[in-house]
Design brief:
The chain has about 140 residues and is an alpha/beta fold. The chain has a single domain, classed as Rossmann fold (3-Layer(aba) Sandwich). It is about 45% helix and about 15% strand. The longest helix is centred in the middle third of the chain and has 14 residues. The model has no long low-confidence stretch (mean pLDDT about 95).
Length: about 140
């Protein structure tokens, strides 16, 4: 499956190791993740080399081409929020996962769109498992 993985870049990287472990597990399961570079430690340096317009065009094209969007939303991010909204607008299934003790925007938790699932986790293994369960339930 082609997965757009969304995570905070400029909003904060405190969950970077979680992002990395989730993406590594999904890649090991055989999925394609065009955004896998976003979980790398040097992403902020690499992304500075790309113009805002190029990032926008690249990312919306990846969202259009993906089967699903999985967003780790423990750290608030304008970009991730936009990506979630865009994916839902074009009818892509979306999973938002977050650490159990983190507050998530009511714009996400209050959205009743059937294509959106919001779940919490306490461990990285649980986040991976919930991502795998979500993907297993997606009808392409």
């Amino acid at each position: 499956m082609n997965i757009y993985f969304a995570c905070s870049i400029t909003g904060g990287r405190e969950f970077e190791s979680v992002y990395q472990q989730i993406v590594a597990a999904l890649l090991a399961d055989g999925h394609e993740i065009p955004t896998s570079h976003l979980v790398e430690s040097e992403v902020t340096v690499r992304e500075r080399l790309v113009t805002p317009q190029d990032v926008y065009e690249r990312d919306v094209n990846w969202i259009r081409e993906c089967d699903v969007l999985i967003a780790e939303v423990s750290v608030p991010s304008h970009g991730v929020g936009y990506e979630i909204g865009y994916a839902l607008q074009i009818r892509k299934p979306v999973l938002c996962i977050h650490q159990e003790d983190r507050k998530v925007s009511k714009m996400i938790t209050g959205n009743s769109d059937q294509a959106l699932k919001v779940v919490s986790y306490t461990t990285v293994d649980e986040a991976i498992s919930k991502s795998q369960v979500f993907l297993a339930g997606v009808k392409l």
